[in-house]
């Protein structure tokens, strides 16, 4: 087992990792930028070193500085958290070269799964249902039109290097095709420096349902059931829940088996999440795979009583995965609390938190790095807390979330708490019958 | 920890400018807090394999009503400037062990002059001074780890 783990991250996830390391008697090293001198996670780590000035590129994304920190503190493993360098194949390679264990997959695996077109091909070959579409990139408009007919309209053109909704165009018929092709290519070229496009059947009214898996690199994979993350604004998740209102026991077994099949075919090592789109008929299609711990991992932990960070560290240290699957024993929901003003288009609201009261009581968990008197730096993302509730039914979860949100007092900065409160009262949300388009029509003006 | 060691520790703390000392090793954990009366709490932990002690010193600035000899020299130095480390790594005073250090106490440095090497991941970076003046004190030992923004040299710019 590792002696000392360096956490190449900040905020709530750094604290999360430190908590598990402490329970495993593993020493921790926190790295921080000058903007994070007052951060909570550096107080709770065993050692902390300043690695650079505020900008991420010079600190949390700066591979030489992080490696230097690992060298001078004699860390034998690095946990990259989520975001930052967690899915950076170069970082994984540099760790390997320097004989420091990167707690995540190998550089080759990150590349294989990070490239969307390749990942789709890999999963398809492993027998995982994928969205019907082109095999790799489209060279000409003629090829595209042919594929569109094969797959059937509506289709979506997507940038292979894409993300965050850029380089994507929905096409409903032949006459729209050329215009969509030209503009998607231009946008992709400008945003990613790569204008390669592929094409997929456009899944209407989808839900975003992901399966949590863990693999030991030897082909043994377990799944921990699904999370429904359909409540999204501009492709950013705001609320997640498990179990998914549309996943029956039968569908869970089928999706879980598909996820396990895909991950074990590539001998995946570490925790991972396979994201699927589920349409109104209950058909599911592979969308992409994330090769890191996810923000919303606590809801899975709550309903399965399973420490995902601990498991991540164990497989990195060479332990085997049992192959046993885990199913939700309760219901759980997470609201991401951001320092943003939901009434002003979610404009970021950094600043000093003057008053803070964190909710408590049965079935309430808050993962957060903030405290009263803490100044939220403007240089990083705006998430300040994750509020997770657990209960015996979805209705009780929503009641408990409402109650907890009412208790959650944050003064000094604006937060998205008013938005979450309104959401918990929303008829459609309470019905469980929503898709990823739900927030497009939400009325934010009365917040 | 023996009774005499605990007494010596309490003695040390009461004479220093520190208000609170927490020490945690594999074998024991002790917390000493000074208000007007010294409070001590100590607990023995289950013995595990040996490791370095985790020493946390808390120096609160509010309750000073007496001089703190330990900190006095630094308070007088407000007219000095320091050369801070621009990166994390290992600090070396000379380009290699067989050669003289770039800079010693008493030397004059100019802006842009190389004052030390900081090594990270086998890359040796020459660090240039951003101030001119006389080197009053070298704050870091040769071959020791330094972090970003850590003061390396105290310089008298006058």
Quick structural overview:
The complex is a heterodimer of chains A (447) and B (158). Chain A is an alpha+beta fold. Chain A has helices at 11-23, 40-44, 63-73, 89-97, 107-114, 116-125, 141-151, 174-192, 249-265, 297-304, 308-316, 394-407, 417-425, 427-431, and strands spanning 4-7, 27-33, 47-52, 77-79, 101-102, 155-159, 169-171, 197-201, 207-216, 221-233, 236-242, 269-278, 284-290, 331-338, 340-341, 347-348, 351-352, 355-357, 364-368, 375-376, 383-391, 409-411.
Keywords summarizing the entry:
heterodimer, A: 447 residues, alpha+beta, Rossmann fold, Dna Ligase, domain 1, D-amino Acid Aminotransferase, Chain A, domain 1, 3 domains, eight-stranded antiparallel β-sheet, five-stranded parallel β-sheet, 14 helices, 33% helix, globular, B: 158 residues, mainly beta, OB fold (Dihydrolipoamide Acetyltransferase, E2P), 2 domains, four-stranded antiparallel β-sheet, 2 helices, 39% strand
Description of the molecule:
Chain A has 447 residues and is of the alpha+beta class. Chain A has 3 domains: 4-103, Rossmann fold; 132-201, 2-Layer Sandwich (Dna Ligase, domain 1), CATH 3.30.1490; 207-441, D-amino Acid Aminotransferase, Chain A, domain 1 (2-Layer Sandwich), CATH 3.30.470.20. Helices cover 33% and strands 26% of the residues of chain A. Chain A contains 14 helices and 22 strands. Chain A has an 8-stranded antiparallel β-sheet, sandwiched between helices. The longest helix of chain A is centred in the middle third of the chain and has 19 residues, at 174-192. The radius of gyration of chain A is 22 Å and the shape is globular. By secondary structure, chain B is mainly beta. Chain B has 2 helices and 12 strands. Chain B has helices spanning 3-15, 72-75; strands spanning 20-24, 28-34, 38-44, 54-58, 81-84, 89-92, 108-109, 114-120, 123-128, 133-138, 144-146, 151-156. In chain B, a hairpin with a 3-residue loop joins strand 2 and strand 3. The chains are: A alpha+beta (447), B mainly beta (158). Chain A binds chain B through residues 25, 27, 33-34, 46, 49-53, 59, 64-65, 67-69, 71-73, 94, 98, and chain B through 48, 51, 54, 87-90, 120-121, 123, 145, 147-150.
